[in-house]
Amino acid sequence: MRHDERYYGRFGGRYIPEVLRPAFEELEEAWKAAREDSDFWKELEGLHRDFIGRPTPLYPAPRLGKELGGHRLYLKLEGLANTGAHKINNALGQALLARRMGKKRVIAETGAGQHGLATAAAAAKLGLECEVFMGEIDMARQHPNVFGMRMFGAKVSPVLEGTRTLTDAVNAAMKSWTERVSDTHYILGSALGPHPYPAMVRELQSVIGKEIRKEILAREGRMPDAIYACVGGGSNSIGAFSAFLDEQVELIGAEAGGRGHKPGEHAARMGGAANVGIAQSYKSLFLQDADGSLLPTHSVSAGLDYAGIGPELAHLGETGRVRFESVSDEEALAAVKRTARAEGILPALESAHALALAYRELPAMPPDSLVVVNVSGRGDKDLFITAPRFDREDWLSFLKSEVARIERGEV
Amino acid sequence: MNGVERIQAAFARDAKIKLMTHAVVGYPDMTSSSRILRAMADSGADFIEAQLPFSDPIADGPSIVEANHVALRSGSRTLACIETLARLRAETDLPILVMSYVNPLLAHGIEAIVRRIAEAGLDGLIVPDWPDDEPELGLGEKCGAAGLALVPLIAPSTSLDRAHALTAASKSPFVYAVTRLGVTGRRTQLEESALERLSKLRARTGKYVAAGFGIRERSQVEALAGHADCAIVGSALVDAARAAHHAGLRDLPKAGGAAEETDPAAAVARLVRSLAGRE
Fold first, then answer.
1. What residues in chain B have their Cβ under 8 A from chain A's Cβ atoms?
2. Which residues are CB-contacts of B56 (< 8 A; sequence separation ≥ 6)?
3. Which of A293, A295, A297, A306 to probe the B interface (max B CBs under 10 A)?
4. Which whole-number Å values give the CA distances from B71 to A290, B53, B77, in the listed order?
5. Buried-exposed string A171-196: b where 16+ CB fall within 10 A, e elsewhere
6. What are the residue numbers of the active site of B?
7. Contact indicator for B47, B97 with CB cutoff of 8 Å
8. 3-state DSSP call for residue A357?
9. Distance (Å, rounded) from C-alpha B260 to C-alpha B240?
10. Sites in chain B below the pLDDT cut of 70
11. pLDDT at residue B250, rounded to an integer
């Protein structure tokens, strides 16, 4: 394992204000100790089974495989994990670590709300106080998750600064942590940020790749030819890829191509538009202007709407080990529909980027290729985004009648 | 006289507590910002701390964050900000320190931007997200070669031994002591223990101590006297500029109103005079 790396090629590191240094030293020590402690893993594995519902299925998608050129296509259904996405793997692991460190409280940032939801659920399960920072724009477009977090007893704090999306939520969480490090652990949600977060999150998400590997070998007796995953910060992709980095398996990351190529219209960092930078306390590739300020990004999926990328993925992209392609909003929406109709599986908009890319590329692959797509989350949370696009009139009249019904007091 | 020497001379001039005033360059726009900086120099500041605007200022509170974003939206570019400071240099002998997060420096190349700052006649750099254990870009060496002070930041949680180690390697005549946990802005209650800590920091490091975060009024500056060598005021000045700027946008033109109410530079000047004990 290469889990204690601080740098990945020229990326990574820990560019934190002096005030956070003790918190990071404590975290690094605690993580080192937990990692070597079989009791920690035993407890986490028990919760994987009982609380998350692991292993998640590796679902053979026969109809889609046939449609796309006669391939053997498997979908890793992380959306069937408790709280609806892979985010719980990391949140629960870090919440256990927080309890082990004697912390009473956890905080988190969230974009799509999935990491916030997972952290809130893990905190409820382990009896920890929880506060989640979420950009005001994301709170509006992913409101069902805001309710979910509150159901789990978490406080959801709107972030009103900057672009009011994920980037600003990360800043807000980090700042909140500087005020209260003694009893609080910051559960960062992706494989990025200052060391040791990229290594720690990757290891907690590596369960995805380990399960894929075990299951595919059992079913097919060989390694897959290719694995697709969507890449926002990169935690589901690095988790899925980590078990295959040293194998002859093509690894492909799908980034948010948004609605165009101009700055502010997409979140495709690996297509050449990003430059080396140090922001949010780590060094990686960032979409930024000539003065180093991060650019606004756009994606129909809040979870991919981010200007940076995890340092390990930036490195794997630079060395060519992982190939990155961008997928537009429209392609992702079409992939949601197609997957739902063909297989009875409703993917999250984020995950739909990985599916769309596979749908684009599979027809050109040799027949009988063995391909896995990591479906990192399920699409229930996106109802308020997909419904008005897929059936505007019906959705509008439903909302109006609901409002009227609630105002009449019929609830 | 290089930057390090100018800073040293300003501290050594007398034993009175000094005042360092902070502004976000380009806030609310470059012209107003230029006037605000000049007003600070004319109204009793001993040092100017001028922040280069950045999208993600991780150590700053809401007031300064908003000022960064407004400055960026008004089109304030890094090199234009340094030009503004070069003009200020021509008008005052006060030490001028550039505060910047690391990425705006990196975007222009550390070597090139340090040279530019030195050529503009500026005196030092304060970089809050530049830890001592990520040395690979050599900011310390490049500042040293250019005669610029790279000011060490010391947190309340930094041990005195670590503070000593951080400062022993630095040519800066002073350290920036953060008076409490958290980010800039919220008013700080200066407890006796915090004041004692500043005295100890001064004794242990042998450097002048400038104390900041949450200093908003003259009484706090006076409380620091004897424990620290300089008080740093940031958010309170940005707040004063903002209030006047907003009032100016709202009430323009209002005959007979005091300039302090609608002119950011005049509002800042008034607060600086008060902080410096000039009124």
1. 53-56, 58-59, 61-62, 65-66, 69, 72, 77-78, 101-108, 128-131, 133-134, 153-158, 178, 181-183
2. A162, A167, A171, A279, A280, A293, A294, B101, B103
3. A293
4. 15, 6, 9
5. bbbbbbbbeebeebbbbbbbbbbbbb
6. 49, 60
7. yes
8. helix
9. 9
10. 252-257
11. 83
B128 within 8 A of B59, measured Cβ to Cβ: yes
Go through chain B and tell me how many residues it has.
279
Report the distance separating Cα A59 and Cα A42, nearest Å: 26
Q: What percent of chain A has pLDDT over 90?
A: 91
Domains and CATH numbers, chain B: 14-275 (3.20.20.70)
Among B245, B246, B175, B247, residue whose Cα is nearest residue B212: B175
Phi, psi angles (nearest 5°) of residue B49: -110, 115
Task: Classify domain A54-84+206-387 at the CATH class level.
Answer: alpha beta
Q: Is A264 left (phi over 0), alpha (psi -120 to 50) or beta?
A: left
Residues of chain A with CATH 3.40.50.1100: 15-50+86-198, 54-84+206-387
Cβ <8 Å between B65 and A290: no
**Contact partners, residue B234, CB within 8 Å, separation at least 6:** B21, B22, B49, B64, B184, B185, B212
- Cβ distance B157 to A22 less than 8 Å, yes or no, reads yes
The rounded distance, in Å, linking the Cα atoms of B50 and B44 is: 16
What's the ipTM? 0.94
In the DSSP assignment, the letter for residue A296 is P
Count Cβ atoms below 10 Å from residue B258 Cβ, excluding itself. 12
- With tokens 């460190």, the residue in question is A101
- Answer whether residue A3 shows pLDDT above 60: no
pLDDT for A2 equals 42
Strand order in the sheet with A129-135: A155-159, A129-135, A105-110, A184-186
> Could you confirm whether domain A15-50+86-198 is CATH 3.40.50.1100?
yes
Tell me which residues of A are annotated as active site. 87, 109, 376
As given in the structure block, the two tokens for residue B68 are 């960064």
